[in-house]
Amino acid sequence: MNATTTKFAQFGFDYTRFRFGLRTGSAACLALFLAWALGLEHPQWAAMTVWSVSQPTRGLLLEKAGFRALGTIIGTSVGILIVLMTQDINLLAGLMLTFWVVACVYASTLLHGLISYGAVLAGYSASMVVLLTRTTDALVYIGVDRLVTVMLGILTALIIGWLFTYKRAEQTLVNKVRRQTAANLQLLAKAFDQGSIEKLPVHDHITQLAHLETQLNDHGSGSPSAHLSAKLFRRLLNAQLGIFAQLETLHFSGKSLTPYPELSEALKSCAQAIIDNDTKRMRATVIALRPFVAKTPIADAFFEFEQAATERLSFRESGAVAQSVRSPSLLLHRDWRGAKESALRTLAVMGLISILWAITGWMPLVFLLLGASVMLTLFSTAENPAKTMYYVFVGQAAGAFIAVSIQAFLWPHTDSIFTMLLCLVPVVLLAGIPMSHNRTSPGSMDFVLVFLLLMQPNLHYQFDAVQSISIALAVTAAPLLAMASYKLVFPTNLRSRQRHLLQALERELQDIEQRKLTLQQLERYRARFYHRLFKLYQIADKLDFNAKLTAARWLLRVQQDLNKHEPS
C-alpha cells in the first residue's frame, strides 16, 4: 500500500481519494442501471445521489444518507405543494420557490454539521420538482420519480460504501486528539519548568486545537455513541483552551508562574501515558495531577480538564460516562448576521431570475434558476464562496462540454435507453481520476454532477444543438452569477467572517458586563465564547500575522472578562 501510495503521489494523485472515487463511480453506475431497470424516468438522478451521499467514513455515510433522505422528502413535498398552488403561473412559482429556498439557506447557515446539509437539500429538492415539472398533470409522477430515484441512490451508496469503507477510518480524529493533548501537556510541563510561558508556542497549540474542533461534526456522525463522543471531545478541547487562556491572562497581567518541578514531572508522566495509549495509567496520572495543580493559580481550569478527561476515559472503557455531559459543551457559535446576508443575497438573485423567467418564458432560465438555488445554498457557508465558485465553474464547464459532445456524437446513433446509459459509464466510472489529482479535485464533484444532470435519456433521441447548448450555458452560468453575487452582494470571505465573529464577541461581552451571572449561566457563556475563539483561530491561521495577533488579543480579552464574573 505504501509503495502504491508513493507512486500515485509522484504524479500528483492521492491514492485514498482515487480509491474512494473509483468505489463511488462504480456505485453510481450500478445505481444508474438499477434505476433504468426499475423503469424510472430520470435514472441519472440515482447516480447523482450516489456521488452526493458517498463519504470516506461509515458514520458520515450513514448520517449524510439520512439527512439526504429527509431533506429530499421535505423538499419534494414542498415542491409539489408549490406547483399545485401556482398552477403553471411562472412568476408565482418562481417567487414561492425563492422564498422557500431563502428560508432553507437561512436555516442552513445557522445550523451545524449534516443537519445544515439537510436544510440545503430541502431547498434545492423543491427546485428540481418545481422547475423540471413541465405540466401539472405530470406533477405527482415526477415528484414520486424524484423521490424513488433519490432513495435508490441513497440505498446503493449505503450498501457499497458500507462494504468498502475502511473500518479504522473513524479512529483518525481520536488519535489526533490524543496526540495533541499529550503535546499540550508537554508544553505545560515546560511552562512550569521555567515558571513562564515566555517563548513557548502557546498560540500554535491553540491553533491545532481549533483545527481539531472543525472535525468534531464529522466525528459525531452516524450514531448516538458518535454524537456523545464528539460532545466529550468538545469539552476536552474547551478545557485545554481554558488552561491556555488562563496562562495567557496571568502572563499579560504581569503575574509569573512559580517554577514547579513536581507538577512538571507529573504532567510529563501524564503525557507519556497518553502517548502510550495506556488507559489505566492515563486515569491514574490525571488524578495524580490534582494535589499539585491545586497549588497553582489555574487550578479551576485544570479541574475542568480533569473532569473532561475522566469522562472521556469512562466513555472509552464502557461507551458511557459516569455523569451526563453538561449542556455548556453543546453551545456553539451561530452566525446570525451571515445567515441574514445569505438569505437576502439568495432572495435578490433568485427573485430577479424568476421575474425574467416570467417575462420572457425562456426555458434556459429555468436551469439557471435551478443552478442558482444550488450555488446560493450549498456554498453559502464556504470560507470564500466566490473563490469556490471559480472551481465549480471550471468543473461544470468541463462536465457540460462532455455532456453536449455525447449528446451530439453518440446518442443520435443509439437505439435504446440501455445503450444511451452505456455511453455515460466511462465518464461516471472514471470521474474519480480528476477527483484524486491535487489540481483538478476542487471542481471534480461539480464536473460529474452537472454531466449527469444534463444527460436525460429518451427514446428516438434527436440532437437539438440550440436547445442543448443553451441549457448547458445556462447551467454553467449559475456559478458565475453566484460568484458575482458573493463578491457584490454582502461580500463574503474570510475577512467578513472574521468581522462577524468579532462583532458577535463584542456584543456578547457587552451583554455579560450588564448582567450578574449565575455559575450555570457563566459556564454557558464560556462554552460559546470558546467555540467562537476556536473559529477565530481557524480563520486567522488562513489569513495573515495580523489576524493571528487579533485572535490572541481577543483570547486575552474574553478570558479577562470571564474571570471578572467568576465566583469569589
How would you characterize the overall build of this protein?
The protein is built from 26 helices and no strands. Helix content is 77%, strand content 0%. The longest helix is centred in the N-terminal third of the chain and has 29 residues, at 58-86. The protein has 568 residues and is mainly α. Helix 4 (58-86) runs antiparallel to helix 5 (90-110) and helix 18 packs antiparallel against helix 23. It has helices spanning 2-10, 15-37, 43-53, 58-86, 90-110, 114-132, 139-164, 172-194, 202-213, 216-219, 224-252, 261-275, 279-288, 290-293, 299-318, 336-360, 364-378, 385-409, 417-422, 425-429, 432-436, 444-454, 465-488, 494-513, 519-542, 545-564. Keywords: Cell membrane, Coiled coil, Membrane, Transmembrane, Transmembrane helix, Transport. InterPro entries: PHBA_efflux_AaeB/fusaric-R. This is FUSC family protein.
Feature tags:
single chain; 568 residues; mainly alpha; 77% helix; elongated; FUSC family protein
Quick take:
The protein is mostly helical. It contains 26 helices and no strands.
Radius of gyration: 27 Å
Quickly count the helices.
26
Mean pLDDT: 89
Low-confidence stretches: 324-329
User: Tell me, what's the shape?
Assistant: elongated
Keywords: Cell membrane, Coiled coil, Membrane, Transmembrane, Transmembrane helix, Transport
Subcellular location: Cell membrane
Membrane topology: Multi-pass membrane protein
Coiled coil: 495-522
Describe how the helices and strands are arranged:
Elements: H1 2-10, H2 15-37, H3 43-53, H4 58-86, H5 90-110, H6 114-132, H7 139-164, H8 172-194, H9 202-213, H10 216-219, H11 224-252, H12 261-275, H13 279-288, H14 290-293, H15 299-318, H16 336-360, H17 364-378, H18 385-409, H19 417-422, H20 425-429, H21 432-436, H22 444-454, H23 465-488, H24 494-513, H25 519-542, H26 545-564
Protein name: FUSC family protein
Membrane topology: Multi-pass membrane protein
Keywords: Cell membrane, Coiled coil, Membrane, Transmembrane, Transmembrane helix, Transport
